[in-house]
Amino acid sequence: MDRKIEKKNWPPKKIAIFAGGGLLFIFVFYTFLFGDTSSKLNVEVEKITLAKVTKGPFQEFIPVTGNVLPIKTIYLDAMEGGRVEKLFVEEGTIVKEGEELLKLTNTNLQMDVMFREAQLFEQINNLRNTRLAFEQNRIRNKGDLIDLEYQIGRWKRNYDIQKGLLSQNLTSQQEYEQARDEYQYAVNRRDLLIESMHSDSILRATQMQSLEASIQHMQTNLNVIKENLANLTIRAPVNGQLTSRNAELGESKRAGDRLGQIDVLDGFKVRAGIDEHYIARIQIGQTGEFDFAGKTYILIIKKVYPEVSNGRFEVDMEFQGEAPKDIRRGQTLQIRLELGDLAEAILVPRGGFYQKTGGQWIFVVDPSGDFAIKRPIKLGRQNPQVFEVIDGLFPGEQVVTSSYDSYGDIDKLMLKQK
What we know:
- It is built from four helices and 22 strands.
- The protein has helices at 12-34, 107-167, 173-230, 353-357, and strands at 40-44, 50-52, 54-58, 61-77, 82-87, 94-95, 100-105, 233-235, 240-245, 252-253, 258-275, 287-292, 295-309, 312-319, 332-338, 343-349, 361-365, 371-376, 378-382, 386-391, 398-400, 412-416.
């Protein structure tokens, strides 16, 4: 006979065990899907630097170092070689225009001057002798012409008489022809003498012009050599300070050697070296500023040197307005050189974080102030104080700008008060 089997209910203990296991599974599954799995690091707020993201005017500029130089420098070079015979002033002396600075001697040049002077005097004597000879010949020819004119007059009268007598048959044909031939001969001689005197006059003028041109040329050459001789005495071309003198007594100098320089003290300029990375962005007229004795002064680029040496090129800058009164030649200035116009931008202060992140991400502090989370960002232009934020940050947010070197690959900083 069959017996009915009754269905038994789960005991409470078993139900509790299964329910607890299910809840544990659900918790683990939820934590895996939705829980915070980011790596964390506890940091003390006092040991980090927090900065606020702002929006305001941005001026891109770079720091450059400039050296103060005189507004104008005159270099002294040897026009002719020679030996240093005298030194009239010392380095650092304030000199006036035309003042003697040093003197060179050049024996060969002095001998050349004397030789050319002798040649010139000889040529002048030749010109004088030639002029005298021409004048004597002119006077002699003129005397001959006078004598010939006198003879022509006598022979013409004789010819006229014989002609009249011949018409009356009072003289012979032979005597008439003789008188006629003598008269005609004298006339021909006179014409030849006049032609010769005319030719001599032209020749004399040509030779005189040639001799005078030769003398003028020799005189010009002599003047040039004398000027070179005078240039052996080096004089100050302007008022200023002899800041360099590259000459010692007895030293031999060649033509073109640098003997020194004079700085004009009417004003100063600043020469600055700039990284070649910025060469395409530097133009005449750009400005920079520097602080000196508690005041800020403005400089303007007046000249850009295109030559690049050791990765840098140079610019000359002049003061806008008055230069500092106590500034001196050779001083070093730290200049903030502007690269662009003033513009509105989102800004984040510079800090050690950039060395680690390269400006690609930053730790942004949560509004609660309890933690900071890594966030990707994009930075643009910069100056020594701030970066321009292109994307990823908003005005009012706080960020960690101190160094990230000890954080490794941490994604979240837990901020703890000490």
